[in-house]
Write a structure and sequence with these properties.
Elements: E1 3-8, H1 17-32, E2 38-43, H2 55-66, H3 72-89, E3 93-99, H4 107-116, E4 123-126, E5 130-133, E6 139-145, H5 162-172, E7 177-183, H6 192-224
Bound molecules: flavin mononucleotide.
The site of flavin mononucleotide (FMN) has 19 residues, from helix 1.
């Protein structure tokens, strides 16, 4: 059965604009979609879902880079990071909801990315060719929200290093098939409901195509089993 991993990067749960749209999208995929697929949800702001990636884990990473043995403490940190990566890599498709925080992504999303963006897992490196993403054949949809910023606003209303960073990271790890839908501004807006409806309509369109890709992922899995 294909698996969809939903990564929620908002801590606002019942009040979250981006989470509501992500759920709207997943419901639409379920309606349009393959007979069944599994949805796993990762609430990045829940306690204890992410290991720290500090002194020990960074040393473990550098040991991999330089071909040295890891200490037992580093092995444990590396295994904790690997578990996060394994959950990510085992999904066929992804839905992300990402509120803009201080022009970037919320820190827990950056932590999730830093924990599992590791050499040999999500990317390879060749001194002559550079980086290569290793997660091939995956599909992603990301919902981006911001309270004040929207494309085309004057510079005094902020910048977007959130969707640009995130789109770049998806590409970096090899997820080239990615759709980005924006609902903005969510606060400084004379027509919040109208703007939300435009995003919902975009998501409905995207859901039909996404459902077809999930069906194909299920078929490919059956062939490979
Ligand atoms: C800590 C924090 C930082 C924020 N920074 C920005 C920002 O830089 N630019 C902006 O337009 N909105 C900013 N906002 C507003 C949110 O992006 C906006 O309310 C968004 O819709 C929240 O999505 P959510 O309801 O899914 O959590 C910020 C909100 C919070 C809580």
């Amino acid at each position: 059965m294909p698996t969809l991993l939903h990564v929620n990067a908002s801590p606002r749960y019942a009040n979250s604009d981006s989470l509501r749209l992500a759920r709207h999208f997943i419901d639409a995929v379920q309606t349009a979609g393959p007979e069944s697929f599994e949805v796993e949800t990762l609430n990045l702001f829940d306690d204890h879902v992410l290991p720290a990636f500090g002194r020990v884990a960074a040393a473990a990473k550098m040991a991999v880079f330089t071909g040295q043995d890891q200490t037992p403490e580093q092995v444990a940190a590396w295994e904790a990071a690997r578990a996060v990566f394994d959950q990510f890599a085992s999904a066929d498709a992804y839905v992300f909801n990402i509120p803009m925080w201080n022009a970037g992504v919320p820190y827990v999303l950056k932590q999730w990315i830093d924990v599992m963006t590791q050499p040999g897992w999500s990317f390879g490196f060749d001194p002559g060719q550079g980086y290569r993403g290793l997660l091939e054949g995956k599909h992603a949809l990301a919902v981006h929200t911001s309270g004040v910023y929207a494309p085309g606003v004057p510079a005094a209303f902020g910048s977007d290093f959130s969707s640009t960073f995130f789109a770049d990271w998806l590409n970096f790890v090899g997820i080239e098939d990615a759709v980005h839908v924006r609902f903005a501004p969510t606060v400084l807006n004379g027509d919040v409901d109208g703007t939300r409806e435009v995003a919902e309509a975009e998501l409905l369109d995207a859901a039909i195509e996404f459902a077809g890709k999930l069906s194909t992922a299920g078929t490919l899995q059956l062939v490979n089993d």
